[in-house]
Amino acid sequence: MPRERKHGTPPTLLVTGCNGQIGFELSRSLAPLGRVVALDRAACNLADLDQMRGVVRDIAPDIIVNAAAYTAVDKAEGDAELAFAINGIAPGVLAEEASVLGAMLVHYSTDYVFDGTKDGAYTETDTPDPISVYGQSKLAGEAAVLASEARALVVRTSWVFGSHGNNFAKTMLKLGCERERLRVVADQFGAPTSAALVADVTAQILARHWIFGDRTEFPDGLYHLTASGATNWHAYAQEVLRQAGTLGVSLKAAPTCVEPIVSADYPLPARRPANSRLATAKLCQTFGIHLPAWRDGLHSVMPQLIAQLPRS
């Protein structure tokens, strides 16, 4: 059962991975809800379970939002032990600590838990079948959380981008300023999703249904959260360049100079799902959430990406 707070006492929210794309945005979006303790890897290392347990017990948060993860998809193929420690084991330990505290746990997962062979968008009831070590480790983590006694929200998202950290949109913008032609994979499909959207929806759900709602009736469990619509990496790259050009960026590569290629033309250590589309109807209907189009999210963050370009 959720523990009761003294009347008028704001909740304490612990955010792990505060230097990641989503973690960075969570520090902003959660600030109006209570006291936010946002920790980086040095302060809360998910690979060090003893340290992590000690941090959680010292802070005794009302809500834990786990945005920390091992996200080096290709490196994970040769570093499975660390990937599973951070992505697979640590989330289950956080869930154990949350259960003891009577705290809520929010944990983020990924489209990589699926093999990408389905024709349509994946729902929460589809059977996962990851094809990479990264996907396997993330599936282990979400399974541990969902099997625990903690009140938990497991949120799968995809193709995350933002103004903070490294991501595809930032890379394409930089390359578009440096090169006259780009070659980008066109046979993998998904929904580019801004880190700000993930953080804002998380804050909205926690505020409405946990902090100020009936927590005993909170509809916890597994949900998909992505921007609306879908595209492929090639068309996504073209849209990055199109929006940048509209905003006055001097590009060497126009959108028409992005050449489509197939995944086999750009081999990587880890296999990627060809279809990363996630159905979001459950989240939208359960929590009354409207999810904007992925192009809108890109448009919102583009000025910040442009501001980070090297000055000529």
UniProtKB/TrEMBL annotation:
Gene Ontology molecular function terms on file: dTDP-4-dehydrorhamnose reductase activity
Does the keyword Oxidoreductase belong to this entry? yes
The answer, when asked if NADP is one of the entry's keywords, is yes
State how the cofactor is bound: Binds 1 Mg(2+) ion per monomer.
Q: Which cofactor does it need?
A: Mg(2+)
Identify the InterPro entries for this entry: dTDP_dehydrorham_reduct, NAD(P)-bd_dom_sf, RmlD-like-bd
EC identifiers of the protein:
1.1.1.133
Reaction catalysed by this enzyme: dTDP-beta-L-rhamnose + NADP(+) = dTDP-4-dehydro-beta-L-rhamnose + NADPH + H(+)
- Quote the Gene3D superfamilies the UniProt record gives: NAD(P)-binding Rossmann-like Domain, UDP-galactose 4-epimerase, domain 1
The protein's UniProt keywords, in alphabetical order, are: NADP, Oxidoreductase
Pathway the protein contributes to: Carbohydrate biosynthesis; dTDP-L-rhamnose biosynthesis
In terms of superkingdom, the source organism counts as Bacteria
Q: Which residues form the RmlD-like substrate binding domain?
A: 13-303
Q: Give the family from UniProt.
A: Belongs to the dTDP-4-dehydrorhamnose reductase family.
Report the function annotation for this chain. Answer: Catalyzes the reduction of dTDP-6-deoxy-L-lyxo-4-hexulose to yield dTDP-L-rhamnose.
Q: What is this protein called?
A: dTDP-4-dehydrorhamnose reductase
The gene behind this protein is rfbD_2
